[in-house]
Amino acid sequence: MTFINPKTDFAFKKIFGSSESRNILISFLNAMIYEGERTIEYLEIINPNLPPQLEGLKDTYLDVQAKLVDGTLVIIEMQVLNVQSFGKRVLYNAAKTYAFQLPRGAGYRMLKPVIALTITDFEMFPNSTNLISRFVFKEVNTNLICPENDLDLVFVELPKFHKEESQLDTLTDKWIYFMKYARSLTEVPESMDSIPEIHQAFEIANQARLSQEELTELERREQYIYDQQGAILKAAGEAREEGMREKAIAIARQLLLVLDDETISKTTGLSIEEIGDLRKE
What we know:
Layout: H1 9-16, H2 22-33, E1 43-46, E2 49-50, E3 60-61, E4 64-68, E5 73-79, H3 86-99, E6 114-120, E7 132-135, E8 151-157, H4 171-181, H5 190-193, H6 196-205, H7 212-255, H8 261-268, H9 272-280
Parallel strand pairs: 5-6, 6-8
Antiparallel strand pairs: 1-4, 2-3, 4-5, 7-8
Helix pairs in contact: 1-6, 2-4, 2-6, 7-8
């Protein structure tokens, strides 16, 4: 079997946001947010696209959005590309979802909590070893949680997951393994197939079930991701090269009064012409 990549927005929405995905999403959210406990027993999958309600405000496009029994809104996004200001975008989407719950004239008491679950295919927090990080409002000195702690940001960083199939112990392990490795698998791992919701997720992800139009769209989305990843890597390489050149120029300037042009060139990697230009400055 060949499985579609759940890390693409198209596949993620198909697996977790379709009409047949309610139980899958419940299991997934319990694993990511509640450590596998059966905290969520029912939810409603709703339209994840939030049009702006004020002129000039940005549209919000999420992968999946759900409403829990107590009214809590859960917004879920799978992000492959480490784009600039992504963390601000997560906070913006969560704040916007929270703010625009209220119909005109409704009191603030009607506001329900918002949980923003973000799965990234890159490291959001390189200085932390935590696979799952959770941020809430706390008092700085005492860690006292704010009484109105209605915004909850949860991040799952896939690159920090290193378990092999034989090491999958918890529901959380198995769902993260699915997210990270499903595209490279040719069959459903036995230890995961026994969980009905994961079995169903693999069935939906089976590429053989897709129409030709869906396959074309999936390929288009994957190609876009590959192109953007290449552009990011190229930009990062150019930035490193530019940084190294600036350091070489700074060193050359310090050597102008003590060494000849040829020696400075060999030391810094700058050309004789470039050293000459520095002397003319």
